[in-house]
Specification:
Layout (H helix, E strand, L loop, with lengths): L3 H4 L8 H14 L8 E5 L6 H11 L3 E4 L6 H12 L7 H15 L3 E4 L1 H6 L3 H11 L3 E5 L3 H5 L3 H4 L2 E6 L5 H11 L7 H11 L3 H5 L1
Parallel strand pairs: 1-4, 1-5, 2-3, 3-4
Helix pairs in contact: 2-3, 4-5, 5-7
Length: 208
């Protein structure tokens, strides 16, 4: 699990998915009072969602939690409280209040990465409670089927303001990656385009 303080110093290539995530977080922070504050950012594995999340968390001083497939409600809340820097109390009820109170007071955004794991572990209603009690900006990041998975929870689904989709990397992203990861290397556009096509839009595959 990444540490927020570490992420503040992360550097990231200026890819378009980073811009998309930045835009929806800003929309959530600056929304009108009558609008819900939950946004989602979903797409296939390898599209650079987590790297973008780490950078954006640092930029906006957001709390960041990477959801795990084995987490119970207690483990989930303990992980959030560790990021916040608050000693967890002993019960789920009290930890829920601890998280909600901090988010309500600070109005700092919280980014929940790998949110499919939270859905699969039936943590959606708990997240709705945290949002309802705090009204802080929530950013949920997951795989491409995350919007369909959340349809099962109608009360939660109706509180989502924006459903953003991660986009496949294009040649401009590939050029940014060359500049970011190499020093003085020149790669011609035809080779970059071939690489983008073969990677099927995966930032991870392009970098590898």
């Amino acid at each position: 699990k990444m540490d927020v303080n570490h992420m503040e110093h992360m550097n990231a290539a200026p890819l378009r998915n980073l811009g998309i995530l930045d835009d929806i977080l800003i929309r959530s922070k600056n929304r009108a009072d009558h609008l819900p504050g939950i946004v989602t950012f979903s797409g296939p594995s390898g599209f650079g969602k987590s790297t973008a999340a780490g950078y954006i968390a640092g930029k906006h001083q957001a709390y960041y939690v990477e959801c795990r497939s084995t987490w119970t409600k207690k483990a989930f809340l303990e992980a959030i409280l560790r990021q916040i820097g608050i000693e967890p109390q002993s019960t789920v009820y009290r930890m829920t209040d601890q998280v909600s109170e901090e988010l309500a007071c600070s109005q700092k955004p919280i980014i929940m990465d790998e949110f499919d794991n939270a859905v699969d572990r039936n943590l959606v209603e708990l997240v709705r409670d945290l949002y309802e009690q705090s009204k802080a900006p929530f950013v949920l990041i997951g795989e491409e089927r995350l919007p369909q998975k959340l349809q099962k929870w109608e009360r939660f689904h109706g509180r989502i303001m924006d459903w953003a989709q991660a986009q496949p990397a294009d040649i401009d992203d590939a050029k940014s990656l060359v500049q970011h990861y190499t020093s003085g290397l020149v790669v011609e556009d035809d080779l970059l385009q071939l690489l983008v096509d073969q990677a099927r839009g995966s930032v991870r595959r392009i970098v590898t």
